[in-house]
Amino acid sequence: MNRKLFRPLMILMVIATIASLTVAACAPTAAPTAAPQATTAPQVQPTTAPPANKAAVGVILPTKDEPRWLQDQAVFQKAGWDPLFSQGDSAKEKANVEALISQGVKVIIITPQDATAAAAAAEEAKAAGVKVISYDRLIRDTDAVDYYVTFDSKAVGSSWSQYLIEQAGSTKGNPLYIYTGAATDNNAFIFFEGAWETIQPKIADGTFVIKNSSEAVALQDKPTLTRDEQAKIIGQTTTNWDFNTAKNLAEANLTAAKPEDKGTVYVAAPNDGTARAIADAFAADKDVTKYFITGQDAEKASVQYIIDGKQSMTVLKDVRTLVDDAIKAAVAFLAGQTPEKTNSYNNGTIDVPAKPSAIVTVTKDNVKEAIVDSGYYPASDFTGLP
Ligand code: BGC
To answer: Helix H segments across 257-299?
Structure first.
């Protein structure tokens, strides 16, 4: 090509490229559909075969806005279901239940958005002869729950405390910051119960000093708490399972704390999404020299945080296990049988039969083995794996 022509042409091409990139950057972002799933969900599948009549079973999950539930969605999809989402809205959840009932399902697998609000939807299902499987979160205050598929949530909370206790060793007077889940989620209570019962003796012996909850300080001599007492502490420390709420609360706590309440700090954070938000707030505080922080869900972003030393631990609740257990329960109900029961959980009205599964604590020391070698996520999803 003529060199005189080539130069202006190149300039034009560069301008056109910049213009198209700018347009792309300004374009409204697409709804988070397939994209986050491809980057956040494990590419694994359940081992239990789904029932022949898959259409007899419907699945409802609480929100697409947390990578945790995209993990469950991906595994259910591998088994042949496309879960409905309630998007944090109990009215939408009820509409989803009604839609499944009118489609003629015989079993509904559902993670309630709000434990108590979901009771009405469960009762509608029961009235229509549909079996209700509470998935990961328990529906409360109704007899219309037939089975509870869950991990050992008390062990989740206990593992946070165990981890923090191990890091503190024999040192005393360590600042402890407590954060909890949403008060509308029964799990927030079970996690907290496990965490409290494990760490309380270490608060009593002076290893830890609670810094961000006057309600927890007032109750710190009690090894076990009633639900009302737990609710008081959760009321003061809740993240509502929301990243921004978590970040704002952590920042407010740090603003209120004195420099001597900082230094090396110990943070009980209730899940990975909130842990990353809280960790970022603690990392940004100049008086915090080191922090240990817990989590759960093995979200990809948190696995990377653990590799990078920005989050200390997470709890792997392998979604394959949960989906397997849900399929087994559904298959049993469709055959007119009762699913396997090893335990039961009181939901305020009845004892709901359940078979809680074991959890795995993940730190930098075992992250490769627990997350990559187990086939949960591929090594190529991370940088700097130990
Ligand atoms: C689940 C957690 C999850 C949290 C927030 C809890 O009920 O057990 O895995 O992180 O809800 O969605």
So the answer is: 272-283
